[in-house]
Amino acid sequence: MANVPKIRKAVYQGPSIVKEIIYGIALGLAAGGLWKMHHWNNQRRTREFYDLLEKGEISVVAADE
């Protein structure tokens, strides 16, 4: 037999620590970015509410009928 390539068996080497750390950082940054966007949206809505309240365009008191 002339130069027959040997087939190697796949061996599980366990998790790559560096790769796991990179995945964790990436997921953390993505989740943190989504949380900040949610927080900024709530701040904007609260600011708009108080601006309209100050201008008198809305009221928190029920109108008498």
From TrEMBL:
Q: What is this protein called?
A: Cytochrome c oxidase subunit 5C
Any idea where this protein resides? Mitochondrion inner membrane
Concerning PANTHER family, the annotation shows:
CYTOCHROME C OXIDASE SUBUNIT 5C-2-RELATED, CYTOCHROME C OXIDASE SUBUNIT 5C-4-RELATED
One term under GO cellular component: mitochondrial inner membrane
Chief subcellular location = mitochondrion
Q: Which UniProt keywords apply?
A: Membrane, Mitochondrion, Mitochondrion inner membrane, Transmembrane, Transmembrane helix
Function recorded in the entry: This protein is one of the nuclear-coded polypeptide chains of cytochrome c oxidase, the terminal oxidase in mitochondrial electron transport.
Q: Which family does the similarity line name?
A: Belongs to the cytochrome c oxidase subunit 5C family.
